[in-house]
Amino acid sequence: MDQRIPNIISEGKPANATESQNKEFLSLFHQSDIEFELKNHLLEDLNQTEANLTNKQYFDALFEKIWQKRRIELSDAKSKTHLLLRFAQLAAILVVGLFIGYFLNSEKKAAIPVYYTSLAPKGSISEMYLPDGTHIYLNSGSEIKYTIDGLEGRREIFLTGEAWFQVAKMIEKPFLVHTPFYDVQVTGTTFNVKAYTTDKEVITTLEEGSVHVQSSKNLKLADETVLKPGEQLVYNKELKNVQIQEVNTKWFTSWKDNKLVFINMSFKDLRILLERKYGVEIEIADQSIIDYHYDGTIKNETIIEVLEILKQTLPIQYHIDGQKIIIQKKEGGRRSS
Question: For residue 67, which of 116, 32, 103 has the smallest C-alpha distance?
Answer without folding.
Answer: 103
